[in-house]
Design a protein that fits this description.
One of its GO terms (molecular function) is 5-amino-6-(5-phosphoribosylamino)uracil reductase activity. By secondary structure, the protein is α/β, with parallel strands linked by helices. It has helices at about 40-50, 60, 65-75, 110-120, 130-140, and strands spanning about 5-10, 15-20, 50-55, 85-90, 100-105, 125, 145-150, 155-160, 170-175, 185-190. It has one domain: Dihydrofolate Reductase, subunit A (3-Layer(aba) Sandwich), CATH 3.40.430.
């Protein structure tokens, strides 16, 4: 069975979405300002070599994720890293996909994710907002967490973890710091 890998940027104080939405807290966001060092870019590309499907939330698609990477693929046509993976958007609010290599999945959330995990192929990478990620965590669908911890404390915001009675026990798979200040922490559910 394929692994579902949740990849998110996080502040050093544990938030994936700051309370102050106008705060510029990430070393890299979408756009041309990409301040990651070469080592972190290499790790990011290595992760993408191990996946053949990207699971996206409707919200992140509407915020520009696919438009950004579509422009990057057109600007760098000789570089296969920009035309990566089949994309699947889980939503019942979009009637059709307007993006290349992108399918819309309208079934039940849990059933759609489990069906993707059972298909043959490489792992599945999840990129989405805090609500989408929280739903995956709550339903125990995530097999690996990759948190790109940015060197900024945001003081408050939202987390993907909500169980305040039991918490979420995790097992460290690896941790590595990069010159740009980002630390990537990888975990599996304990």
């Amino acid at each position: 069975m394929r692994k579902l890998i949740l990849q998110m940027q996080m502040s050093v104080d544990g938030y994936v979405s700051p309370a102050n939405g106008s705060l510029d807290w990430q070393v890299w966001g979408w756009g041309d300002r990409w301040a990651w060092d070469d080592g972190l870019k290499a790790f990011f590309n290595q992760v993408f070599e191990g996946v053949d499907t990207i699971l996206l939330s409707r919200k992140i698609v509407e915020e520009g994720y696919l438009d950004h990477w579509g422009r990057a693929a057109k600007n760098h046509p000789a570089n296969p890293q920009f035309a990566f993976a089949q994309k699947v958007v889980l939503t019942d609010k979009l009637k059709a996909s307007r993006w290349e290599r992108t399918a819309i999945a309208r079934g039940g959330f849990i059933d759609e994710v489990n069906a993707l995990k059972k298909k043959e192929g490489k792992d599945i990478l999840v990129i989405g907002g805090v609500g989408f990620a929280s739903s995956l965590v709550t339903e125990k669908l995530v097999d690996e967490f990759q948190f790109f911890v940015n060197p900024t404390a945001v003081g408050g915001g939202r987390s993907v973890f909500h169980d305040q009675r039991k918490g979420h026990a995790l097992r460290l798979l690896g941790s590595k710091g990069y010159e740009c200040g980002v630390v990537v922490n990888r975990y599996a559910p304990a």
